[in-house]
Every structure is written in structure tokens, then in C-alpha cells.
Specification:
The complex is a heterodimer of chains A (about 270) and B (about 270). Chain A has about 270 residues and is of the alpha/beta class. Chain A is built from nine helices and nine strands. In chain B, helix 5 crosses helix 6, helix 6 runs antiparallel to helix 8 and helix 8 runs parallel beside helix 9. The two termini of chain B are about 15 Å apart. Classes of the chains: A alpha/beta (about 270), B mainly alpha (about 270).
């Protein structure tokens, strides 16, 4: 396997060094995973279900310790103050059904003990940014799937995180809603300058969004290819229908197919 | 189309209220008729009219007894509510405590209260023994439901709280208790009816010892005196009390959950 990481140009925000993860039932989810996340980039982890993408994300977030290896944070203070610098968006909206949109988005600030006036200002600003300004007092059950995901994104953004971790956030949505949220996410990413690590199993989504894609193989998960998407931002519908986009999608598909073929070969040998 | 549906709904609701009332009226009529036609003496089977008359005549005595029973029930219920929720919270915070005590809570629950009541009456002063019975039967559903509720927290939400560095108290207050609320309220609803049953059982047991003044005691006492109409009247009051407790708790349940929980939502919304 060729080394997946290239020499760094932008400064590295975090680095996974030889990360392996074995679950108590003996499954090896990740094996010797190595990659950098560069400050400000939009990085996608693309791979089939069960390749450990989500596990990698949880390890970065500190929700699950690696069995071997480590996550390094070269940036000062990032490791120490991870709770306020990381936003996490799950595959499900994961909202508190008993709390209004406002209270859901305010949760990270409430838990940190931020004063109420400051919370009100920041939450209102964030809800405005994700297009939920009018829905602050509505309860989650009254919202559509796409709107719920917006609340979830607002909650992740409200702390103005340096790193936004997203675990297949749009997988359960219909395509039209997903396109809309893709565009809005890119806009937010550009406006805030945050770094995004985005887990997906959709070739098209990863190409459309990312500045860089890491293709992963399954069982155990490791990086098998790296693809830089050099198309300029802002990207829009024109990019989605361009020949350039189609070419990138073809390359990403090929890389993914290759990863899965390697995986199968490895599995057959074993 | 919407208007037609609401009309249909209103019609449906009217039927749901009218039909049981109609059945009740019919049963009472037949009952009264049977008693009249067959000249059944009141000490065998009093007619509904006589029972209502007795209820009015003996109102002073019976309402006193009702208050006694209700007071025991409410006290037992409150103790069960606080005791059950409190114990469940303790269990949730300390696994050791849960392992040590939970089996005994189960034992207390599965041993029939009718069998425990006479023993309690030996060792405790009577009002306290009655209260203890109401508490014993009522607290377990609160404990069991609250425990279940505290364990049924959404995993991802729990992770989110960990990610944002929530303290144990914050997790309890902002996550576990709200998640458990529907379960707790369900437990309380069961506990309301059970604390009445507990109070009645203990009063009956105490009644045979010759003391007490609650409604159940009146039933036992009237039985010995062959005052069957008063037995029925006291029984009627007990049923009404039980129904009132049930609906009061349903109402509280509805108020607490109507904005977000599935159980309190109509299909349409």
C-alpha cells in the first residue's frame, strides 16, 4: 500500500498516527490509520459501510479511545480545550425532543455555563445562519428531516468550533434536501473558516463538497487513496453539471472500486 | 375535507361519552326492575335508588371516611412518588447500591400486600400501618419505571453531552430526567391507583381488628351489620375516588408531555 499522506503544505490541525481500534468482540475496525487534517480544509472520508469511518471520527472527537496509536494536535491549546473547539453532527439529528429548537441549539453553551444574554445572542445568530431564525420556539417533532438536521448543524456551530466533525449527516435525507444542505454547508464552511471532516459513502457528495478526499477500505479500515479536488469554491449547480465534476466523480469511483477490490482480495487470501 | 373529518371526530367523541352512560342507565334500570319485581329485600340486594338514598342519608359519615381514605392514599402516593424516583436516582448514580437493594424492592413488590398488612398492623400504630401498605404497593412501579427511563437515554445524545464536557449533575438534569419523564409519569399513573388499593387492603385488615374509620373500614363494618345499602354506597365512593385519581394523573401527564412526546400527540399533527 502506498503512503496516503503527501508532504504538508497547509498547517496540520490534527494528525492520526498509527491509529488502530479493536472492539471488545474482537472486530478490528481500524488498522494503522494515518492521515493529517489540514487547517481550513474540507476533508471527506469516503468508504463503504463498516470501513470504520465513523469510528475514526469518534476517536478524533475523543468519544472513543484508540486501541493503539494516537491523535496529535499540533495547534496550541486544541488538545486541552477540545470540548469547545469541536462540533459534532451525527447521522441522525439527535435532538432533545423535549426542548425547543432554540434550547437544542443552545445546549453546548448551557453546558459550558455561558451567561444567558450571551447565549441568546449567539444562538439567534447561529439559527439565522442555518435558516432557522423563524423556528426558534418550535419543537423538533414539528420539523421536517432536513430542518431537524439544520438544528443539529446549528448546535454544532454555536460554539464556533475550529473543527466540525460530520458523520454521514445527510444520508437519511432526500436528494433535493441534500443538495440544498450541501450548498448551505459549503457557504457556512467558507463564511466561518472552520475545518470540516465529513464522513460519507456517497462519491458524488464527497466530490461536490470536499477539497480533499481520503478513500478508505473496510475491515479493518485504512486509507487506500487520496484525491485532491482542485475545483474552485464557491461551487454551485454549474459545478454539479460540469465535465470537471464528472471527471472527479469517475476518479473517486474508480478509487473506491479499487479499494473494495483490494479489500476483497485481502479477504479471500485470509 | 378537513371540516368533514373534524365533524366525524366530534361525532366519534360524543359516541364515546354517550354510549357508556347509556349502558350504565340501562343496567341500573334493569337492576332496579329486578329488585322490584322479585321483591328482593335490601339486606340481600338493594336497588340503585336505595343505594343513592343511603349515600345521601349517610353522607356525613361516609364523606368523613372518604376523606380519611383519600388522605392515606395521597400520602402513600406522595411517599411512593418521591421514594420511587429518589431511589431510582440513587440506583442510577451508584451501581453498588442498585445491586444491593433492588432485589429487596422486588421481594416487597411480589409478596401480596394482603399478607403483609396484618403483620404491619401488629408492629406499627394503625394509621402508620395503613400508610405503609399504600406506600409498599405504590412505590415499586415508580421505581421500576424511573429506572427504566433513566436507562433509556439516546446514546448519541449521551455522547454529545460527553463531548461538551457535561458534569454528572448536568447529564442528570438536562438529559436523564427529561428522557425518563414519560416513564416516570407512567409509573405515577399506576402508583395512583395502587396506593388506593393499598390503603383499602390495610383498612380492611385493620377493620377486622376493630379500629379505623376509612371507607374500606365502613364496608367491612356495614358487612357485619348486614347494612348492604351502605356497603354499596361506600363502594361507589371508592370507585369514584379511584376514577378521579386516574383522571387527575392523566391530566398531569398530558400537561407535561403534550408538546413533545409521542404518547400525547394526535395522529394529525
Amino acid at each position: 500500500m502506498p503512503p496516503a499522506t503527501k508532504p504538508q503544505t497547509a498547517s496540520s490541525l490534527l494528525a492520526l498516527r498509527g491509529v488502530s481500534k479493536a472492539f471488545p468482540n474482537g472486530t478490528l475496525a481500524l488498522s494503522n490509520l494515518e492521515f493529517d487534517v489540514r487547517a481550513g480544509e474540507f476533508l471527506s472520508l469516503l468508504g463503504p459501510s463498516g470501513c470504520g469511518k465513523s469510528t475514526a471520527l469518534r476517536i478524533i472527537a475523543g468519544l472513543s479511545p484508540p486501541s493503539q496509536g494516537s491523535v496529535e494536535w499540533p495547534a496550541q491549546g486544541m488538545a486541552a480545550d477540545r470540548t469547545s473547539r469541536i462540533g459534532f453532527v451525527f447521522q441522525e439529528p439527535t435532538l432533545m425532543p423535549w426542548a425547543s429548537v432554540f434550547d437544542n441549539a443552545a445546549l453546548p453553551l448551557v453546558l459550558k455555563g455561558v451567561p444567558a444574554e450571551s447565549i441568546a445572542k449567539r444562538v439567534t445568530g447561529t439559527l439565522d445562519r442555518v435558516g432557522l431564525a423563524k423556528f426558534a420556539q418550535v419543537f423538533p417533532r414539528e420539523l421536517s428531516g432536513g430542518m431537524r438536521m439544520r438544528v443539529s448543524i446549528a448546535r454544532a456551530l454555536v460554539t464556533e468550533p475550529q473543527l466540525l466533525l460530520m458523520d454521514e449527516p445527510f444520508a437519511a435525507l432526500d436528494e433535493i434536501t441534500r443538495f440544498k444542505l450541501n450548498n448551505d454547508l459549503l457557504q457556512i464552511w467558507q463564511a466561518t473558516g472552520t475545518t470540516v471532516v465529513f464522513v460519507t459513502h456517497s462519491v458524488f457528495e464527497s466530490v461536490y463538497l470536499s477539497s480533499r478526499i481520503l478513500v478508505m477500505t473496510a475491515r479493518p479500515g485504512r486509507v487506500s487513496a487520496e484525491l485532491a479536488i482542485e475545483a474552485p469554491y464557491p461551487r454551485d449547480q454549474n459545478f454539479r453539471t460540469s465535465a470537471e465534476y464528472a471527471a472527479y466523480c469517475r476518479r473517486a469511483s474508480t478509487a473506491l472500486a479499487q479499494a473494495m477490490a483490494d479489500d476483497k482480495a485481502a479477504g479471500d487470501r485470509a | 375535507m378537513n371540516a368533514a373529518r373534524t365533524k366525524q371526530e366530534r361525532h366519534d367523541r360524543a359516541l364515546r361519552i354517550a354510549l357508556p352512560i347509556l349502558v350504565l342507565a340501562l343496567v341500573l334500570l334493569i337492576w332496579e326492575a329486578i329488585v322490584h319485581v322479585n321483591h328482593i329485600p335490601p339486606y340481600v340486594l338493594p336497588g340503585p335508588g336505595l343505594i343513592l338514598g343511603t349515600l345521601a342519608d349517610d353522607w356525613e359519615l361516609l364523606s368523613q371516611s372518604l376523606l380519611v381514605t383519600l388522605a392515606t392514599t395521597v400520602e402513600g402516593f406522595l411517599l411512593a412518588a418521591f421514594g420511587g424516583v429518589g431511589l431510582a436516582l440513587l440506583f442510577n448514580q451508584s451501581r453498588l447500591l442498585e445491586y444491593s437493594l433492588y432485589p429487596y424492592a422486588v421481594i416487597l413488590q411480589v409478596t401480596p400486600i394482603v399478607a403483609i398488612a396484618p403483620l404491619l398492623l401488629i408492629y406499627l400504630p394503625q394509621p402508620l400501618a395503613v400508610l405503609a401498605c399504600a406506600w409498599i404497593v405504590a412505590f415499586f412501579p415508580v421505581l421500576a419505571n424511573t429506572t427504566l427511563g433513566l436507562h433509556s437515554v439516546d446514546r448519541n445524545l449521551s455522547d454529545l453531552f460527553t463531548l461538551y464536557g457535561a458534569s454528572r449533575r448536568q447529564v442528570l438534569w438536562h438529559l436523564k430526567l427529561p428522557s425518563a419523564l414519560p416513564y416516570i409519569l407512567g409509573g405515577l399513573q399506576i402508583a395512583g391507583g395502587l396506593s388506593l388499593i393499598g390503603a383499602v387492603v390495610a383498612e380492611i385488615a385493620a377493620g377486622s381488628a376493630g379500629a379505623g374509620s376509612g371507607l374500606a373500614y365502613r364496608i367491612a363494618e356495614s358487612g357485619y351489620r348486614l347494612n348492604i345499602p351502605r356497603m354499596f354506597a361506600a363502594l361507589l365512593l371508592l370507585s369514584v375516588a379511584g376514577i378521579a385519581i386516574f383522571y387527575a394523573l392523566s391530566f398531569v401527564n398530558h400537561l407535561a408531555l403534550r408538546r413533545w412526546h409521542e404518547s400525547a400527540l394526535s395522529r394529525e399533527s
